[in-house]
Amino acid sequence: MREFLGIGGYERTPEGALSWQHLTFVGLLMAAMLVCAIVLGLRNRRKDEKTKNRVLIVTAILIDAIEIFKLVVFCARGEGLREMRTNLPLFLCSIQLITIPLAAFSRGRLREAALDFVFLFGLLGGLLGTVGAFQNYNAYPVLGIENVASGLTHSLAGFASLYIGISGLASMKKRNIPLTCGILFFFVAAALIANAALDYNYMFLRRGDGTPYDILFNLVGGNPVLYPAGVVALFVLYIAAFYSVFYLIERKKSVGSMEAVR
After folding, report:
1. Residue 224 burial (CB count, 10 A)
2. What are the pLDDT digits (tens) for 174-224?
3. How far is it, in rounded angstroms, from Cα 106 to Cα 246?
């Protein structure tokens, strides 16, 4: 347990990104995420909102409990202040630590916007934070608290996204788009402030740090204005593309239903 929790430092050498250990671990997480989302989503699809929401409540409690446990371990290792500074929920994927509880426990348009936000970004963050988290798997052993806790929380975010879509909880109402985008831009602004104050790289707005964002970083030559602007532009393009595909699918479903009635 000392070795798993990293107390006294790890004796193992990190296996590295895209090693068979990394791919096996995240492959098992992705498989569990898909199976649970499909089974629970289909089972609850025709049930009432309260029943559907119970799954989100459990997910919200689990994702935050795992994160809190990780921070407690960091404090036990004597790294509390340093790790707290670098573990604020200001990455695209870690925002789900806040938005999933919002989706589970809030009401009205805020709940709808939070559900849509998790639906939009949960799976993307889940993939980037597991398969694409090269920096973590190059720095820590696969079966260490950093990667296990991160893998579980990111998989729970991906699960929540898929479950919301499959169970029919996502509203994707046009009137809520500004509020959903507002959630994102609020955290972007918070990340920019935190980066300046703490000299960190939240939401990868300063550099790619071994993530796929490195492609954009290299493309603009690391320009301190163009790079973060490009990251935000990618967020906006992703939102626009996601909504467009969603509405296109819904339109085809509607047309198909009308033809079936005829």
Report:
1. 11
2. 999 999 999 999 999 999 999 999 999 999 999 988 777 899 999 999 999
3. 24
Distances (CA, A) of 206 to 38, 39, 59, 224, 247: 37, 39, 31, 7, 34
Half-sphere exposure in the Cβ direction for 190 (13 Å, CA): 12
Q: Is the dihedral of CA 238, 62, 94, 208 positive or negative?
A: negative
Distance of CA 70 to the CA centre of its chain: 17
Locus of tokens 């589970």: 104
Contact present, 25 and 19 (Cβ < 8 Å)? no
Does residue 55 sit in helix, strand or coil? helix
**pLDDT tens by residue, 97-130:** 999 999 999 999 999 999 999 999 999 989 988 9
Nearest partner of 160 among 68, 253, 71, 97, judged by Cα: 97
